[in-house]
Design brief:
The complex is a heterodimer of chains A (about 120) and B (about 140).
Chain A lengths: L1 H22 L2 H40 L5 H28 L20
Chain B lengths: L1 H18 L17 H23 L18 H26 L9 H21 L7
Classes of the chains: A mainly alpha (about 120), B mainly alpha (about 140).
């Protein structure tokens, strides 16, 4: 489902962007930029929604059953929460690789030669 | 002499009254297990749903250095994600502690359910606050 939604989103974006280019004008260019941005963001939106799905389903399931959570339910929930954190961790690491922070200035050691003269 | 007799009576009362079941005057004494596992579990589900916004935000393209996020530049900011990641780890730790206690309270005799619940709720709330602050997953 995710793939088909992504494909449709990209296709619509490409078609409308092409139409906007044909029509020309500043407004059309802006629309094209919006659509391009949406097409780039759309997989992330889908992944976010997909990430919430098991929690919503589990919550509804527990309400419907009226019972207490089972061992399997606890395990599934903690695993899903851990997977989310891992996904964020991985992206933080990828960001650091892509845009490394500037190295910290080396700490001053010893006497500053500029100020030690007589 | 009267004083010593009074003292002896007080000591006797202190010893006998608890044996007679007077401790049940405490309104909380009859609550043997105030832990609500369903409440904890649903808190975890709410947390997972809130964290999904952070997952979606992380999956956005990384903003090029020096560019601002906008409607035509939908991306995630590196420093915002680092902040979110830190708070997510704190919330994970607090929630895991709460789950461990809720499932096996006898293993943690020195801990209080209500305190752990409050701590986890506060930690999860921080994640949501960061998401609201940076307009993650919503429209301002």
């Amino acid at each position: 489902m995710t793939d088909s939604v992504s494909t449709i989103g990209a296709d619509i974006g490409a078609l409308l962007a092409a139409a906007a280019n044909v029509a020309g004008g500043t407004g059309a260019t802006y629309v094209a930029q919006l659509l391009t941005a949406f097409a780039a963001a759309e997989p992330a939106i889908v992944s976010g929604i997909a990430s919430a799905e098991p929690f919503i389903a589990a919550g509804v399931s527990l309400i419907e059953s009226g019972g207490a959570p089972t061992d399997e339910m606890w395990a599934a929930q903690l695993t899903a929460l851990g997977a989310q954190t891992s996904a964020i961790d991985s992206q933080v690491a990828a960001d650091e690789a892509a845009q490394p922070d500037a190295p910290a200035a080396p700490a001053a050691t010893g006497t500053d030669p500029a100020s030690s003269g007589t | 002499m009267k004083f010593f007799r009074l003292l002896a009576l007080m000591a006797l009362a202190c010893f006998v009254l608890p044996l007679a079941g007077c401790t049940t005057l405490n309104p909380f004494a009859k609550i043997t297990n105030p832990i609500n596992q369903t409440e904890v579990y649903q808190l975890g589900n709410a947390y997972g749903s809130a964290k999904a916004l952070a997952v979606g935000y992380a999956a956005l393209p990384l903003c090029p250095r020096g560019t601002a996020i906008g409607v035509t530049n939908i991306c995630h900011d590196k420093s915002v994600l680092v902040t979110l990641d830190k708070d997510v780890h704190a919330a994970d730790t607090a929630y895991t502690a709460l789950v461990n206690f809720a499932r096996n309270p006898a293993n943690y005799p020195g801990l209080s359910f209500s305190q752990l619940l409050s701590t986890a709720q506060a930690a999860i709330s921080v994640v949501s606050q960061i998401e609201v602050q940076y307009n993650i997953g919503g429209s301002k």
